[in-house]
Request: fold
Amino acid sequence: MIEIRFHGRGGQGAVTSAEILAVSAINEGKYAQAFPSFGPERRGAPVIAFCRIDDHPIKIRANIYEPDIILVLDASLPELIDVTYGLKKGGILVSNFKHEIEKAREHLKTKEKIGVVNASKIAMEELKLPITNTTMLGALLKASQLVENSSVIDALKERFGKVADRNIHAFERAYKETVIINGSP
Amino acid sequence: MGKRVGMEVSIGAAEAVKLARAECIAAYPITPQTHIVEHLSELVNNGELDAEFIPVESEHSAMSVCCGCSAVGARTFTCTSSQGMALMNEILFIVPAMRLPIVMILANRSLSSPLSIWNDHSDIMSIRDTGWIQLFAENGQEVVDHVLFAFKVAENPNVLLPVMINMDGFILSHVIEPIELPDQDVVDKFLPPYNPVQRLHPDHPITMGAFAIPDLFTETKKAQEEAIKSSFPYIIKAWDELGNTIGRYYNPIEKYKSEGKKILFITMGSFGETVMTAIDMMEEKGIDVGLIRIRLWRPFPEKEFLDAIKDADILIVIDRAITFGGMAGPVTTEIRSVLYHEENMPAVVGFICGLAGRDVTPKDYERMVEIAKEKVKKGKEKEYEIYGVRE
Reply:
């Protein structure tokens, strides 16, 4: 089972990205579950969502404390809170990142594998909105091919209807532009 | 066969109400039930569900409207949570007494105060004695299947009682997971239109919910108690029919790796799945524990329960509500009562946990096994424990 924790700010779509990932996996015949860290949603405040993917039925109804992968939608969060807590040894941290790639490890404060992309820039150019959820899914899949890109594209089409194309562009661009830095042994 | 798709459990629940062809829905939105009501109002508004959706100003009115709709012979659905349920409390007692087959989903949430939107079973336990048939769902698929099942049971002329499906708020209601919605023609065969035995109609006047003098009240209540007790075989029959229709079979008491085990967990609702994972983890370490899940809470399946726990020495009962000033949590108290006349009575250790959404992990259940063993060793199993409380 792969467990993923999403960090974002209220309104950025962290919950939606967890949902799209789960739906994509389920459409591939896998088992998945996505859920928010339940609470009164506040726009702009740090929020968390979770996703589990497995080849077998998932029999657990608890939060994720030791994720295999952490996905950070907001570039400012790693400077404010410890987004890396509980990350498994050999895990992956994928983050929206605005600075030079050389500074990624220092900024993200982890020795594990890192995936970084300037998702805010891509989202502003492709969606004209600072909402990075669909963009960061591209970065996530580049770092770990949890599901096929086509499955996510199908899920985006179903979810976003008229504005799906823009989201698909953002997703595909992030997949191409994400830089992977392997973890130190 | 229906297609297996990823959807929010609340949306699945609303789609099941559509598949059941509910004719009247009256509800007031309240967290965490809101998505069910919102989706149902959309389904009615866009013509996908041919029903009266009656928006009301309170839950008291919601259940009152449901009473009226059901009394004139309409298939009637509502759902609520916590404070909303508390506000409909008065009418909750009236529905089973008037033998109205209303189906309700209760998205379980704690009762204020302190105000909390999160999940526990304080709401359902406060209305345990209203006379509704009460079920607990463990996952999204069970919620969907049991909406169809609930109408089948409730409307059976031998039953004619309301059915309440308990669905843990957020832990189930807000989760995206794989759900299979049966095809409409399959559901239609399983659940034909409601054919009431009697209904309010101006051409054939009858009285429902009348005044009763002391001379009649006790007999009326005895009849109501007989009605819910004798509903049991029809509940079992409906589960058989459901299984034969959709291929998923359910029982009033479900077992997981419980055969021959000396230590058993007893759970209700969504915590059952996490306990299964905990049991698998303990099994790898050589710790033998099994699980009994109570799906049917009222009428309580006494015989099936006793049969399921017959080999056990220790029962670890998980409660999600407090009986203030009582002997233990409500489920623990119930289990002790069921066991009282048994010859080889196991030790019953009660834990109260998961109040207002407090996360309970597989490791916590493993810890509870250790604590339970210790309590039994010391002869202190009677003292229940609020697990993980900071003192």
User: Anything to note?
Assistant: Chain B has a mean pLDDT of 97. Chain B has 14 helices and 15 strands. The domain at 4-246 of chain B is CATH 3.40.50.970 (Rossmann fold).
